[in-house]
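Record 1 of the preview.
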Amino acid sequence: MAVRIHFTDDDLAQIRLAQAPDPMWEALLSMHMLQTDTASLVFGGWRHTVRRRLTGPVGALLRLAPPVGYSADFLTPAAGTGGLDAGVGALLSTPRQRLAHDLTELAGAGRRLPSWAGLLADGDKGAVTHLGRLYRHYFATALAPWWSRVRSRFDAERAAHSRYLADGGLGGLLNTLHPGLVWRRPVLEVTGLGVDRDVHLDGRGLLVLPSYFCWRRPTLLKDPALPCVVVYPMPHETALSTGPDLRSLNALLGRTRAEILESVADRGVTTTELAHDTGVAMATASHHIGILRKAGLLSTCRAGRFVLHTVTPLGLALLDGRRRT
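->
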């Protein structure tokens, strides 16, 4: 079973790799993660902290985003690619027909809806405003304290695939994103969703969105009439924690290693680029990269003919702590 996305020639020219993490998608997918106990190695510490910090009213928001099955499509408007303000603004402008359709879909699946869901389905201004406030509160509590790490991991993922796109072509890119995405021109198969259907883009193009909180398999909106976005999980190597253990990690940092971490923090770079940036020989750069990688501070992946080094969340946490001292 698979969702088969069919491309025209125009669609092939309109495939886009997202420029930044989408706060609306990350919020939705983190709500899923918050309501389960899976992936504890990666998200356990984050989940424990967020559950303690969230206030009661936000629990109603979670009912619109159950961890299994359908979640309301209106929670992830296309405008979210422009940032939180744009995404929440689009959420507040959701047509009444879309609100009613998605809430009916949730109710039909047997989901318990918030007490104000009826007003929301009618497009009541007060209910819609309340939804926007809950969304902002959720983001401020569950995502904002960790957003720099989410962004750093996203930037590393995008840098790797941008280079592959330039070097290996479109087919090469789509076939390296995730095992659940299979490119057989002119069809992209999204597997693992437990559904079987065909989506014809008909010139609309496709946005490919790496996500920190997407887990195990890619996902997409249920309604094929909406803008087509394929969201896939970024790889994880270390936990999304609340901070570094500087006493145990500080011994790893000499000047050169610190400069290497600084250079890698905002982008994926090659060994040659790191040697140039830090003013050391290639062999010396490789030596330090190996140590940092074994310590879990850097990760290395192949992107076409390039081998790229990126900072892990643990490495970013170490840098954040070092910058505050």
